[in-house]
Write a structure and sequence with these properties.
The complex is a heterotrimer of chains A (about 350), B (about 400) and C (about 350). Chain A is an alpha/beta fold and about 350 residues long. Chain A is built from eleven helices and eight strands. With about 400 residues, chain B is α+β, with helices and mostly antiparallel strands. Classes of the chains: A alpha/beta (about 350), B alpha+beta (about 400), C alpha/beta (about 350).
Chain lengths: ~350, ~400, ~350
């Protein structure tokens, strides 16, 4: 059973133009980040690896647009777009990709462990499912501290089958914690389709097992994702507890760099390329005269330039030294003195 | 700026491919993401995607050619832009293999300690060393493992008696200090390798002693040893073979005369060296000698102080010795032993007796380098210079 | 001063920490309403309320992750495992997440969480009897604490709660005291010299990496943890009658380990036996022996010996279980062997 490719125009009614343009810009930055890096990895020396989120940008951008700056996010190995949506500086992210001291994690984490605690980005977790209970814990902490913050856990269609998904959703609903669980269903967990790995292919339907709302949304429609997120955030902030959101999207590139995805039909990829979330938003913005083509092209150019400048910046940064890691193993700054 | 299109990584352990088809040609405008060529490996067909929008400025490889990773295939840029060929060789993606961390040296394939073999605990070994005991002589009280207590017991037992040829004679063991041990080893080696012979000459030290008194009255006292260094340094140049060392099938003859002087210290014998003594005046020799002897007595000689000697003087005269035959200071070919001047009367040419102060000088030589005649000739020169005692 | 058993001392440490610092919370199974399977946490829910004391479902991986998320965002959680054997359900969260987040984030975050629970063989068969220190000593980025007395337990737990790093705080069931299940059995174990100790009423912190010489001697050094410490003390008493003067050292913290005290002891006694209840192979004893070899080799008059559990899952039948775990007689024999190598 294949998922239908969404091609309907996006409905942008009621959303402020500034927000729409910001979402357009953020998705483009995420796209440029992935694509410019992709070519770099193919042809030059880049330490580590990367997992591209090309084609999936609408999900993090849509969800995070409904959050406040101090709300929490946890992410995965495919997490660049989550950081960009959370306004983590491109330079810091890129320097981290290049294993430089000026990276946001001082070159200690790399692509799969990007984090920016000053912006509530609690980290990308490379163990599938590991971030789900951790985001739940951040939500518990917000509740205990009565801070009004909300936590979002991003994970994929593969992550729903880790035990931690089940345990975390149960506790979140049991305790009515302000956490939102977002399944970025890009339809593949490396080579496994949803149908091949989940007995119930309708992933959002699992919500009923935990007595929480479950919603399915077109993950390539950034505005639809945004609207869904708004509801979930409002519910959480008002003490109504968690929501499970399943956003249907598609992984345009392979699982990781150099992964040729021979298990997929090329025609399927081409069909989903036609449902590109950035193009769909662009078309809606033009159709509703929110922006002109020139303005949209300018934003495209800005995003491209911002990323290539970030690459230049990163390449000029300082390499991690042999003893850098020693400072980060333990925290010996003193602890509390309760 | 022009962008090079190079052959990207093709997959695990694939080094080359065949370029089978170009989709575009020179002069075409291309967009990002567009497929512009096909590569075929034995595993799959891969497309080359265009990384940037622009004009295809150059196509550098014919269809059907074999290409390798990093090879330049095409160039994209502004129409009419100039470009130059640069090939970039990407490092293999698996950096771990290029940084081979040597396996830890865990191949300590120790054979399991056989129960029958004698073992010594680390502590026992340390104790034995501190006490100057050869731990191999210690018998363990139990089984075959020597422990610290066994070493202590051995030390006590041996302090009480020394067993010599089956009888017990009361005595005690004195540890041999590092320096003494070293000197002993050197002397043993010296005697074992170089054939020693000694030649003695009697010198009338009358003028030497008179000059020494003069200098003292002047307020510039100099030692007898300093004077000997001075005259030896001036006698050696006409007998260069004395100032040498045996070196397999050569004799190394030195051009400078670095005279070592044997000094007895509480630790043992040390030989500080006066470098290029032939260039030094008597006053300088005396000053340097005093300084270096003081250092020796304080145990503060540096490696430089004792290096590069070419000839040695050993003066036991100040201890009342009249004559002795020193052992060569290896690797030097000759050493001069000096005795104390002895007052006596000797017949003059005229048949009278006159007072003389006879000092016996003994040259020990390495017979691989020198023979009796060489030694005698040198000593004759030295005697003449000492008896004339002309100082400039 | 009043005497408390270890269970009471631990409870007091948690109570006082929660009173002093509102960011300290407690999570675990049956910790609230029930007061804890070993009665350690009784009264805490009533006093501090459900926002501070959380009864969790049976979801070790899940609630460990929840604890970590809370630690990343301003709280100082104490995460309890009903039996430390169950921490293995949460291995990824402890080892891959808690211990590594600080390094991976380049120091942006600390993870001030305490993982605690009871361990030790008490006739409950293989999955409720393990000693788990070595798994976590081997994990950089966290600390491992193993107290053997009530006094040490309170002071070390307070330090653990104040520490900004993940700390595994290990408790031995048989040392909890008469008030706890299994405690009665402990009293019947004649190898335990003393269960309770004088515990000051006010909060106090014992620093990590400070081993405690629990008995001074000059012939041989025993290095032992938790229950084994008490058996080592009993062995020392027995050997004393034979004229062997035994020094007994309690490391108290395994990571970080105080080697200075151990090396100083060896400079005096030159003989050592390391005793731990965990599996011998690649266990606590292996690490301590390796450190002794590196730092005090030339003090040794005999090879160091180690005692640990046999390389077997812990069997149910009492005679077999006893044979697997080091007993008083095993310690005495080991001392004799190390002194009289043959």
């Amino acid at each position: 059973m294949s998922v239908p490719v969404p091609t309907e125009p996006i409905n942008i009614t009621g959303v402020k133009p500034e927000l729409l343009l910001r979402m357009f810009q953020k998705m483009l930055e995420a796209r440029e980040f992935e694509e410019q890096l992709y070519y770099l990895f193919l042809t030059t020396e880049m330490p580590g690896t990367m997992h591209q989120a090309t084609g999936q940008e609408a999900v993090p951008v849509g969800i995070v647009s409904a959050l406040a700056d101090d709300d929490y996010v946890t992410s995965t190995h495919r997490g660049h777009a989550h950081c960009i949506a959370k306004d983590v500086p491109l330079e810091g992210m890129m320097a981290e990709m290049f294993a430089k001291r000026e990276g946001i994690c001082h070159g200690m984490g790399g692509s799969m462990h990007l984090a920016d605690f000053s912006r509530g980005m609690l980290g990308a977790f490379a163990i599938v499912g590991a971030g789900i209970p951790i985001a739940t814990g951040a939500a518990l902490s917000a509740k205990v501290r009565n801070s009004g913050q909300v936590a979002v856990s991003f994970f994929g269609d593969g992550g729903v089958n880790e035990g931690t998904f089940h345990e975390a959703l149960n506790m979140a609903a049991l305790w009515k914690l302000p956490v939102i669980f977002v399944i970025e269903n890009n339809q593949y967990a490396l080579s496994m389709t949803v149908a091949e790995s989940s007995a119930l292919a309708n992933l959002s339907a699992r919500a009923c097992a935990y007595n929480m709302p479950g919603v399915r949304v077109d993950g390539n429609d950034v505005v639809a994702v945004y609207r869904t997120a708004q509801e979930a955030v409002s519910l959480a902030r008002n003490g109504g507890g968690p929501t499970l959101i399943e956003a249907i999207t598609y992984r345009i590139r392979g699982h990781a760099r150099f992964e040729a995805s021979a298990y997929r039909d090329k025609a399927e990829v081409t069909k989903w390329e036609a449902a590109d979330p950035i193009e769909r938003l662009g078309q809606a913005l033009l159709a509703e005269a929110v922006a002109t083509k020139a303005e949209l092209d300018a934003i495209r150019q800005e995003a491209e330039t911002a990323v290539s400048e970030a690459i230049n910046y990163a390449q000029g940064c300082t390499d991690v030294g042999p003893e850098d890691f020693l400072a980060y193993i333990l925290d010996e700054t003193g602890g509390s003195h309760a | 700026m022009a962008t090079n299109i190079i052959v990207p990584h093709l997959g695990e352990s694939i080094e080359s491919a065949t370029l089978t088809h170009w989709y575009r040609q020179v002069g075409d405008t291309v967009t990002r993401g567009e497929e512009i060529a096909d590569l075929e490996t034995d595993k799959a067909t891969l497309s080359i995607e265009c990384p940037k929008k622009g004009s295809l400025l150059a196509v550098l490889v014919e269809p059907g050619s074999e290409v390798h990773i990093g090879q330049l295939l095409a160039v994209i840029g502004e129409p009419g832009e100039k470009w130059h060929e640069e090939s970039i060789t990407p490092k293999h993606e698996d950096r771990a293999t290029s940084q081979i961390i040597p396996a830890p040296d865990s191949k300590v394939a120790e054979s399991p300690a056989t129960r029958r073999r004698r073992q010594v605990s680390p502590l026992a070994r340390r104790r034995a060393q501190a006490l100057g005991i050869n731990v191999d002589l210690v018998t363990p009280a139990k089984g075959n493992r020597v422990k610290a207590a066994d070493v202590e017991k051995f030390a006590v037992l041996n302090a009480q008696s020394v067993i010599v040829d089956g009888t017990e004679i009361p005595g005690h063991r004195v540890p041999i200090s590092g320096l003494k041990k070293l000197v002993g080893q050197r002397m043993l080696k010296s005697v074992q390798t170089a054939p020693h012979f000694s030649v003695t000459v009697k010198v009338d030290a009358r003028r030497l002693m008179a000059v020494r008194d003069e200098w003292e009255k002047k307020g510039q006292p100099v030692s007898m040893t300093a004077m000997l260094v001075y005259f030896v340094a001036r006698s050696l140049p006409s007998h260069p073979l004395i100032n040498s060392r045996f070196d397999d099938d050569h004799i190394l003859v030195f051009d400078t005369f670095n005279i070592g002087v044997a000094v007895a210290t509480t630790d043992g014998l040390r030989v500080p060296v006066l470098q290029r003594a032939e260039t030094l005046r008597l006053a300088a020799i005396d000053t340097q000698l005093k300084a270096v002897v003081e250092k020796a007595r304080l145990g503060k000689l540096s490696a430089d102080d004792i290096a590069d000697g070419t000839f040695t003087i050993s003066n036991l005269g100040m201890m009342g010795v009249s004559q002795f035959s020193p052992i060569l200071n290896p690797p030097e070919a000759a050493i001069l032993g000096v005795g104390a001047p002895f007052a006596c009367y000797i017949p003059t040419k005229g048949g009278d007796m006159r007072l003389a102060h006879i000092m016996e000088l003994t040259l020990t030589s390495d017979h691989r380098v020198l023979d009796g005649a060489d030694a005698a000739r040198f000593l004759a020169t030295l005697k003449e210079n000492l008896e004339a005692c002309v100082i400039d | 001063m009043r005497k408390l058993n270890m269970a009471e001392a631990i409870r007091e440490a948690i109570w006082q920490a929660m009173e002093a610092d509102p960011s300290v919370i407690l999570l675990g199974e049956d910790v609230g309403k029930f007061g804890g399977a070993f009665h350690i946490t009784h009264g805490l829910l009533e006093n501090f309320g459900p926002d501070r004391v959380w009864d969790t479902p049976i979801s070790e991986a899940g609630y460990t992750g929840v604890g970590i998320g809370a630690a990343l965002t301003g709280l100082r959680p104490i995460v309890e495992y009903q039996y430390l054997d169950f921490i293995f359900c949460a291995m990824d969260q402890v080892v891959n997440q808690a211990a590594k987040i600080r390094l991976m984030s380049g120091g942006q975050a600390s993870v001030p969480v305490v993982f605690r629970g009871p361990q030790g063989a008490t006739g409950r068969a293989a999955q409720h009897s393990q000693s788990i220190e070595a798994w976590f000593m081997h994990t950089p980025g966290m600390k491992v604490i193993a107290p053997s007395t009530a006094y040490d337990a309170k002071g070390l737990l307070i330090t653990a709660i104040r520490d900004n790093n993940p700390v595994l705080f290990i408790e031995h069931k048989l040392l909890y005291g008469a008030a706890s299940p299994g405690g009665g059995k402990a009293l019947a174990d004649t190898s335990i010299v003393d269960i309770g100790s004088d515990v000051p009423e006010e909060p106090y912190a014992i620093p990590f990496q400070s081993a405690d010489v629990k008995r001074e001697g000059k012939d041989v050094t025993l290095i032992a943890t938790m229950l084994m410490l008490h058996r080592a003390l009993a062995a020392a008493e027995q050997l004393d009658a034979e004229g062997i003067d035994v020094e007994v050292i309690d490391p108290r913290s395994l990571v970080p380990l105080d080697m200075d005290t151990i090396v100083a002891s060896l400079s005096k006694t030159h003989h050592a036996v390391v005793i731990s209840e965990d599996v011998t192979r690649a266990g606590v004893g292996a690490e301590i022996m390796a450190r002794i070899s590196e730092e005090a080799f030339y003090e040794l008059d005999a090879p160091v010996r180690r005692l640990g559990a046999a390389n077997s899952p812990i069997p149910f039948g009492p005679a077999s279980e006893q044979n697997v775990i080091p007993q008083l007689g095993d310690i005495v024999d080991a001392v004799r062997r190390v002194l009289n190598e043959d």
